[in-house]
Input
Amino acid sequence: PLEQADLTVALARVVSTTPMGKSFALTVDGQAYPLRADVQEAIVRMTQSLVSNVVRHAHASAARVTLTYQEDQVSLDVVDNGTGFDVNWDVVNQDSTLGLAGVRRRAMGVGGTMTIESEPGEGCGVAICIPAYRAVDRAGGGDSGGGNAGDTAEVVKDGNDLSEIDEAARVSEKNKTSETSGPKKSKGREA
Output
């Protein structure tokens, strides 16, 4: 487990220490359940990398990290309203431990997938999905990450209009639902 902090607190620290301040929000949805220590560590490291990418490259005025506990999976979504980019599969598949390639490798290392949706001028969304059967700490030694049944917790309250990000999150959630009910049109590719 994370030393001296639960997963929600660790993610809040990552998000709140960016130069974007309150323009970078963290939301935790769903009922938290115990996650394996390596999954918690991977989620924190992936969040650090993705937040760093937003700060360094996106030129965003607002961004959001969402950790969602669902019955069948735990997901991490990082969405920004920045400049976006043309999703180039080589960027994700390059032999590197840095950036998106490193995030993809970490996600795969805990049995998860990574999906990127972006277009120039349209911001970016990165979704990490880890099946619950791979993420859950069956021994009960992992920290649950905080949260209560049915909670939606706005951990870092922001004062900016995040309507573009909220809309991107709704589209992302709609696409996740579509993945189980039929084919999905996606701007990005799943890793």
Q: What stands out?
A: The beta strands are 24-29, 63-69, 73-80, 113-118, 124-131, 152-154. The first helix runs from residue 7 to 16.
